[in-house]
Amino acid sequence: MEKLVIDGGKILRGEVDINGAKNAAVAILPAAVLASNGKCLIENIPDIEDVHCLERILTDLGCKINKIDRNTLEVDATTIQRVDACTEDVRRMRASYYFIGALLSRFKEARVELPGGCPIGVRPIDQHIKGFEALGAKVSIEHGAVRVQAEELKGANIFFDVVSVGATINVMIAATLAEGTTSLENVAKEPHVVDVANFLNSMGADIKGAGTDIIRIKGVESLKGCNYSVIPDQIEASTFMIAAAATKGNILIKNVIPKHLESISAKLIEMGVKIEEGDDTVRVYVDEPLKGVNIKTAPYPGFPTDIQQPMSTLLSSVSGRSIITETIWESRHKHIDELKKMGADIKVEGRTAIIDGVKRLTGAIVKATDLRAGAAMVIAGLIAEGVTEIHSIEHIDRGYPHIENKFKDLGASICRKEVE
């Protein structure tokens, strides 16, 4: 077991490169299973534990994985031998459910253990199942695993009851090899949904409308390998934007798509943060006192749920009252108790956090209750007076590659240590 130790109070300055998007990579890797001819060379893959987990699952299924470097993988799915994914790696991560859609699409059957992931609330897969059944699959839950089978898959018109990133991507993957045309409505529009669609199209799929209200998939007979580069991670980029604001620093954040960051930029500017956009860069700096704002999470292009936890740390350290309303997940305020240990003044009422800014946070022993909560605690440690120890950092490693090295390069006093 490891922990992060941070001696806070340092102003962050410098440049940081953003890695490929976690939420895109964890869908693209399972989608590579669809290539029955040729290999997929996937670049700009983040070097994180969730990706390593997917590598092991792909290998267990019979795929050949060639790690070119820590950010480039070659996946050969022509050697796949199994359609059941029932390992500990499958159980421990949420994104393993994308193997259901991929295996169903290519082999017309699959058995995949029910997924795990961060404990941020009830995360049903009913919309995934609805989509698979509409395409013609029979779905059952047996011994803790999802079993899907189909004589054939046929295109259908599918209207999702709720906007779901996972269901949108999973059913889109499943429909790529279905006979006829599939129309998906009330879909998620996040950048990583578009990225997965672009990856599938690079393999020979016929998908139009990703990023809009309706996605149409015209089924093709087979998919082939391709070369592809994952988009930059908007959540990692947003985390560094917030860290720059929280430490009153000046950071040039490189390898980003500024448009993907607009909802975060808008709230930071409302607080008084200065932001300068380039073609693929964002500079974030502070030269005046910041003020509180109100935030309500929403599907893209709204304010991302994945960023409300780091944002709550920033808002706890600025003057005035702020209110964060979480509309996506019902249990995404668990980190508030950890922030309170550091002196934050926050009350939680249902899905709403009422934050009254304090003059300072103080170092304490805290834990990362989930992935994005871990990022929130790192930012808290960076601005706190004294030393902060963050435990359960395996959550952080699931989504932030080499986080301590990146912050150290910006001037932070942060290191990773073994827990005694």
Automatic annotation (TrEMBL):
Residues 7-406 form the Enolpyruvate transferase domain. Phosphoenolpyruvate binds at K22, N23. The lineage of its organism: Bacteria, Bacillati, Bacillota, Clostridia, Eubacteriales. Its main location: cytoplasm. It comes from Clostridium intestinale URNW. Keywords: Cell cycle, Cell division, Cell shape, Cell wall biogenesis/degradation, Cytoplasm, Peptidoglycan synthesis, Pyruvate, Transferase. GO terms for biological process: cell division; cell wall organization; peptidoglycan biosynthetic process; regulation of cell shape; UDP-N-acetylgalactosamine biosynthetic process. Belongs to the EPSP synthase family. MurA subfamily. Its EC number is 2.5.1.7. Signal peptide: none annotated. GO terms for cellular component: cytoplasm. It holds the Pfam family EPSP_synthase. This is UDP-N-acetylglucosamine 1-carboxyvinyltransferase. Gene3D superfamilies: Enolpyruvate transferase domain.
